[in-house]
Amino acid sequence: MSAEIRALEPKAVWKNFADLNAVPRPSKKEERVIEFMVAFGNKLGLETLTDEVGNVIIKKPATPGMENRKPVVMQSHLDMVHQKNNDTEFDFDTQGIEMFVKDGWVRAKGTTLGADNGLGVAAIMAVLESNDIPHPAIEALFTIDEETGMTGAKGLKGGLLKGEILLNLDTEEDDEIDIGCAGGVDITAVRSYREEDTPEKVTAYTITVKGLQGGHSGMDIHRGLANANKIMNRLLMDGFENFGLRIAEIDGGGLRNAIPRESRATVVVDEIHHDAFAFEFNQLAAAIKKEYKNAEPNMVITARVTEAPAKVMELGVQEGITRAVYAALNGVYCMSPDMEDLVQTSNNIARVKIGGGHVKIQCLTRSSVESSKIDLANSLRAAFELSGCEVSLSGSYPGWTPNPKSAILKVLKKKYEELFNETPEVVACHAGLECGILGQNYPDMDMISYGPTIKGAHSPDERANIASVEKFWKYTKEILGNIPEKE
């Protein structure tokens, strides 16, 4: 499989991507990929260092004739989102990503691909090892833990970098240039409950919601995709109100920045209601699938009879939690009044885990406006607190305020038009890029973000467009050769 990927053009990028994807690199477990990057820099004979939190910095002097150009920071993150289909046997902690080519796209076998942000990393590696690309002095910044807290960007100290321009290679549409992004905050609701003995004469079911598209909770939140946790809660609420359904456990969703694709629950219903419950469940499942027939054509909702659990959730807590999840907003909260088609504020109910006397619900709220972010976070906190949960807000990070007058933006727009004979879209995105955080310690650095076309990020459907990577590489080389002179 690796040979097939390495044969793609541009080989300089794809061979580095193949090398990188052979290294397990989960967020918060980046030791092996840090070691890999340090060895890469040392092998090239370039100054290579790691900072206190684990970010890797590799410095390359300007090529002859480019010494008077502004120094550039090229930045991408080392970690990747780990998601896989339920029927895929894969250990992200020990295995490299298994890739293949289909219909002009590079994909992975049942897992996320790691093109986010591995292709950015691979392109920077290709620049570092090149001998024929004109460029100014470069500081290659490879950050850690972007996907689950941005602790790499947060931990990068001011004064460590000397670059005046930052090229962030972490966006996912090759005709877009990003000049702003949303900030975010993690919301976690927890509580304990008393487990009760399962009533006698019940029928137990395993309810499953699966086959959803999932995706990036920032870039895809406006698409109207189904959230498996909200779908499951809707089914459970209906079963409770009509048939006294009792919950034994729920396990739905995964990472905060991934729209939940799957959820599973174990429940019981009085056996006298077996036929009526099955009929009502199938009716509601059919209605939900009809609602999402275009957005989620592969949705599967099932209720299968199973062995009865020994314990179920305390009734009062069950009712409070299901009502809280029903009330909690998921999806777009409001659109930006300043930039057309930009989501301003949103929330993703990412993870619902109930069982063994414990409830844990995890959300990620995003916004390009700090006050709106806190407003929605407080709304969610209120809903969960009313159900008896303790709610914490953590991991808050700022957005990146757009600068339409950016000097490097002018360079990128001009070069794009010259190379591709069309005008790029200048946008702000609803994802959380590291630029806003980096800008806190480097407020004078002129920042821009761009990248190749990647679809389905944060899901097993993640794929990278091969032709777009060629375009991205050509564009990157042209940008580096046209960096403005020092003032």
UniProtKB/TrEMBL annotation:
Keyword Protease assigned: yes
Cofactor dependency: Co(2+); Zn(2+)
Reactions that this protein is recorded to catalyse: Hydrolysis of dipeptides, preferentially hydrophobic dipeptides including prolyl amino acids
Gene3D superfamilies according to UniProt: Zn peptidases (3.40.630.10)
GO terms of molecular function: metal ion binding; metallodipeptidase activity
InterPro entries: Peptidase_M20 (IPR002933), Peptidase_M20_dimer (IPR011650), Peptidase_M20C (IPR001160)
An example Gene Ontology CC term for this record: cytosol
Alphabetized UniProt keyword annotations: Cobalt, Hydrolase, Metal-binding, Metalloprotease, Protease, Zinc
EC annotation from Swiss-Prot or TrEMBL: 3.4.13.18
Enzyme kind, highest EC tier: hydrolase
Location of the Peptidase M20 dimerisation domain: 208-295
Alphabetized Pfam families for the sequence: M20_dimer (PF07687), Peptidase_M20 (PF01546)
One record GO biological process: proteolysis
SUPFAM superfamilies: Zn-dependent exopeptidases
Keyword Transcription regulation: no
Family affiliation: Belongs to the peptidase M20C family.
PANTHER family from the UniProt entry: CYTOSOL NON-SPECIFIC DIPEPTIDASE
Name of the featured protein: Cytosol non-specific dipeptidase
